[in-house]
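subagent[fold] <- orchestrator: predict structure for attached chain, return tokens only, no commentary.
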Amino acid sequence: MPRITPDAAGGRNVCALLDTIAWSEISAAGLIASDDGYDVLVGSTPTKPKLFTSYATHPNVYNSRYDSTAAGRYQELFRNWLAYKSMLNLPDFGPVSQDRMAIQQIKEAQALPSILAGHFDAAIVLIAHLWASLPGAGYGQHEQQLDGLRDVYRNAGGTITSLANVTGSVA
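subagent[fold] -> orchestrator:
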């Protein structure tokens, strides 16, 4: 569950989408093996967790295997953290700051109206380029199946009002 409140996030559907992104990026077992994903470094697995210990700032730990500095519940890159820290006046890389950063990315992708309306599939199409594990991301990494993501979203309290495909959707 995100640490930001549904009111501050923009609603239950936004919080459910955050849970879905975290599950997609880290896995359910990875979320359990950590501080709900907020302290996870890229390359972490449930059997070999790679965690960081301070939320003072993004850890900026480079993993050469993945050519990435991704960290946290939404696997945010260090270079992105620097920009969003300033833009959103984030005090640290703590859970609420990570939630706020991900929500800002969802807004910038123009997916917020879709998720608020319960158009889950359309929202995933719009944000897939932001998270490598989402279907249609195209980064050459493992991509989750849309049906599984829908289940996670619903289980997190999200409402889907339409499963109709939209132009460019990932059916």
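orchestrator: received. Logging for downstream: The two ends are 27 Å apart (CA to CA). The chain has one domain: 6-155.
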